[in-house]
Amino acid sequence: MSGESPVSGFELTEGLVYLDGNSLGALPSGVAERLDDVLRREWGAGLIRSWNDAKWMELSQRIAGKIAPLVGVSPDDVHLGDSTSVSLFKTTVAAARLRPDRHVLVVEPSTFPTDGYIIAGVADLMGLELRWCDPADPLAAVDEDVALLNLTHVDFRTGAMFDMAAITAGAHERGALVQWDLCHSAGAVPVDLTGAGADLAVGCTYKYLNGGPGSPAFLWVAPEHQAAARQPITGWMGHQSPFAMARDYEPTPGIRAFGSGTPPVLALSALEASLAAFDGVSVDSLREHSLALTDLFIALVEERLPGVFEIVTPREHSRRGSQVSLRHEQAYGVVQALIAREVIGDFRDPDIARFGFAPLYNTLDDVRTAVDRLEQVMAAEEHRDPAYAERNAVT
Ligand SMILES: Cc1ncc(COP(=O)(O)O)c(C=O)c1O
């Protein structure tokens, strides 16, 4: 995967530098055609027959087969169908039930808010205690009362990455389970859940996996926990024989018990088609390219705009995800002025300009162009434009 390789396989407009694949991945080639086929042939012509003929019920398993190698697990242990938030609710309740003698759920306060909200909701529902940990030392909060430590592998604001294996081992020594949110990891950095001995994981598919806006999340439960794991949304799609229409709920064995309702066929079909972009691409080559991109961005920002931004993303490769975050008092204006110059990043409150580098389609030339335009924005003080005083609903 050469840094200078032309963008191919993605429908990106010529001249646009897209550095927001850590929020919404770009549209891979072939997805629109595949969706059109699903709409017209499978749904339009096939109608109800397509549940069998087009094997819509098997979409989750087929997609699991493509995502599993990116996160170091077996496809048999992965389920897709709900949002990350709902998946997190299911896996967190299941985790708490796996440790009935413990009453504390640990979350880091700087994590993506939905993790904190969902886990606080689970704590409330189950009569458990929510405990915030120090992101600099999450294990310090883990003692013999802790059922689960939930962490986001790569931080959405700073791009800092936790040492998954070391933290998982440390939590296990204290008898706690560990759940990883892989939203900012899957498809961008190597993840080895099995090698790390992790217990549960969730991750979205609309960022580096390019599944499209709101595409269904994946969840993973380690095989050794599945027999005892009980998720709370006991719908018919987790039943051992949904079409027996039995009165009583009997979970199907294995990860499929994490299903609840009818699968979102259109969204899953788009996701399946988009994952073809990973065919024949090794995770190691993606990582190598991702680091080349973020290294170059950091070096150019430091060289060309010294002292203008604080680079909050760690320099050490082992602690860096696939984004670079720059702190600036007027970060919102900086991002908006860059968008006006066809460089798309995003803003996170209160003062972070975020640039995601998707190793599947970003090039070293994208990095050079982005920094050129950033220099122009700052030189002309375009970020001070009063038009940027009011923020959009989605930043
Ligand atoms: C770390 C993390 N977790 C969860 C989510 C979102 O969850 P959902 O897919 O339910 O919107 C995001 C979204 O950006 C995220 O960054």
Q: How many beta-strand elements?
A: 13
Portion in helices: 25-40%
CATH fold-type name of the largest domain? Aspartate Aminotransferase, domain 2
Global Rg: 22 Å
Question: How would you classify the helix and strand content by structural class?
Answer: alpha/beta
Strand order of the biggest β-sheet: 2-8-7-6-5-3-4
Low-confidence stretches: 1-6
Main beta sheet: 7 strands, mixed
Gross morphology is globular
Give the CATH level 1 class of the largest domain: Alpha Beta
CATH superfamily of the largest domain: Type I PLP-dependent aspartate aminotransferase-like (Major domain)
The appropriate CATH architecture of the largest domain is 3-Layer(aba) Sandwich
Unique ligands:
pyridoxal-5'-phosphate
Q: How many separate helices?
A: 12
Span between termini:
31 Å
Q: Could you state the order of secondary-structure elements as H and E? A: EHHHEHEHEEHEHEEHHHEEHEEEH
Q: How much strand content do the residues show?
A: 5-15%
What does this protein structure show overall?
- The two termini are 31 Å apart.
- The protein is α/β, with parallel strands linked by helices.
- The relative contact order is 0.16.
- The longest helix is centred in the C-terminal third of the chain and has 22 residues, at 283-304.
- It has helices at residues 31-45, 50-53, 59-71, 84-98, 113-126, 164-173, 193-196, 223-226, 265-274, 283-304, 331-340, 364-379; strands at residues 17-18, 78-80, 104-107, 129-132, 146-152, 177-181, 200-203, 218-221, 310-311, 323-327, 343-344, 346-348, 352-356.
- It is 35% helix and 13% strand.
- The protein binds pyridoxal-5'-phosphate.
- Pyridoxal-5'-phosphate (PLP) binds at residues 83-85, 112, 114-115, 152, 156, 181, 183-184, 204, 217.
- Residues 83-85, 112, 114-115, 152, 156, 181, 183-184, 204, 217 line the site of pyridoxal-5'-phosphate (PLP).
